[in-house]
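In this supplementary section we document a worked example of the pipeline. Step one takes a protein sequence of length 290 as its only input; no multiple sequence alignment statistics are reported here. Step two produces a three-dimensional model, which step three serialises into structure tokens for compact storage. The input and output of this example are shown verbatim.
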Amino acid sequence: MLKSQRRIGYLLIAPALTVVVLLSIYPILYQFWLSLTDWYILRNPEPVFQGLKGYQRFFQDPMVWSSLGRTVIWTVGTVIIEFAVGLPLALLLNRRSRLNAVLSGLILLPWVTPSIVVAYAWRWLLDGQYGTVHYLLHAVGLVGERSLLGNPSVALYVVTVISAWKGIPFMAVALLAALKAIPFDLYEAAAVDGASAWRRFLHVTLPLLRNTAVVISLLLGILAFYSFDLVWIITDKGGPLNATTLIGVYLFRSFFERKDFSYAAVIGMMMLLILIVTSAVYLRALRRAD
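The serialised model returned by step three reads:
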């Protein structure tokens, strides 16, 4: 009886598994095979097997390491800002108010707005000649005539803040949902024991938000690590002087501009490997802390 139930269960999930294989696993396998070939379309019209030479080139490419360094700053900075702003925003929205129900929906606008629209909007706002934000910053003496996006020393940090601005609503709403799930009895019991509001936050709210914060931070970190569209549009393909060239931007250039399909596949496989290892270490460290 149990075996027949398992068979029925496997049959029911077979269509979904087939879709997953076709849309996820097969492209990864094809990308791995492509990474073992030499398919620079201006030299080889068809893929030619070359083994691990592409990976050797990856580790010897200085552009890879500089772009990875920028990507780490971009990813970590994005997640930290999202959590640092999203948590207070969630606590504010958790207060009982008729207005908060409306605000909870409105703050999602940056998240649901397409990245292309966000990128062009911020590019215009920070434009050195016509940008409103640039004009205000220049009026108070924070910037000069040149746009922040044209300064190689600060451009990466500017686009990191923009990336976090887009992701803050998702973080806030997710944390708000977790706050709503915390039983009010716990706060009452802590108050009876003499705990102040700050201690209730430290010993009740934060521990019960931890799992949600970990999952959402990991999800937003993955999205930031793989993203390139915001940087590509705002900084005009990773400028100035490659100051904002992330690893995703470098992959995009290799594939679409240089037509070096095999090397782009190598970069993609290494990005996947880095993400898997980093996520595993991150989750393992948190389990040990628990």
